[in-house]
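Quick start: what a row looks like.
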Amino acid sequence: MTARLAEPRARDRAFNVGFGSVPDQFRRVLSTIGTYVDLRGGGEFPTMIRKFEPKPIRVFLQDGSNDLNLYAGSWWHANQSMLSALQFAGYDVHHLWGEGGHDAAAARCPGDPRMAMSRLSCSRSSPASP
């Protein structure tokens, strides 16, 4: 199963499902514009990933350099910190960086070959355009 991150508040919870709560039920995590800044404990993920035994999950991260930079931190830098922590811990992790902001248009998964490598399907968080 793939934990898909759809709504902004659900993004860190979906990673938490794959990483902590039930990694035996979720093997893949798709994170588009992941909230790994200091909101609701999301900023703790990189440290936890580095400190604990790796879980049997595969991760795909996507974010853009024009993402939010607020009082809780920079989404762009937080996603890069997640990538670094996941690589350090030996996870099977792929990423796609772009220039997008913090919106549904930036979270779309393009036909990038790295998506095929990750064996993850892309799910848009907004309704399909007419």
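That is the whole record. The chain has five helices and six strands. The radius of gyration is 14 Å.
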